[in-house]
Amino acid sequence: KQAIDELYALGIMNGYEDGTIKPENNITRAEVTKLVVATMGPSYTEAAVGASGVDTQFTDVTGAHWAAGYIATGVANSFINGMGDGTFAPEENVTYAQIVKMITAAMGYTSICERNGGYPNGYLTTAASIGVTKGVNIVGADTVVTRGQVAMLLDNALNIPIVGITGYEEDATTGKLIAKSA
Length: 182
Description:
This protein is mostly helical. The protein has helices at 2-9, 29-40, 42-51, 68-76, 96-106, 110-115, 121-130, 147-157, and strands spanning 165-170, 177-181. It is globular, with a radius of gyration of 16 Å.
């Protein structure tokens, strides 16, 4: 309740038209993308609103989709990916690993997560170590999460410093450039 109240007060989580939040309901990938964008701040929300009506890179999210601008903003800021087949699956329920990846990536922890093992375990381990998953008892990366659980994850993230990029270095294993974090 505390997490939902805070997110509601900040204008991040608004609920349904009937005034309810329905914390026990599952949450879709489109809905959670909107929440992560809103959590990042007003400039991100403004960018998402500005990108609404424009087709995304995903075959299943045209500009007509209500979350197209949020999804485009998530892609532009490198915290969301599709399903690997050119789709985003906006109406599918989000899993624990997916939301944790979105949150940690939005906070700038991608390089650290990748060094810790990549998706999903590197993201889950990093999120736990910095406190994103505090108070959220979910077993299994593929577990579908509820709106209340997402609220707790996002509320936790609001109290954790974001990572600043100080430069880039070559990954010894892949040869790709990765961000160095402060």
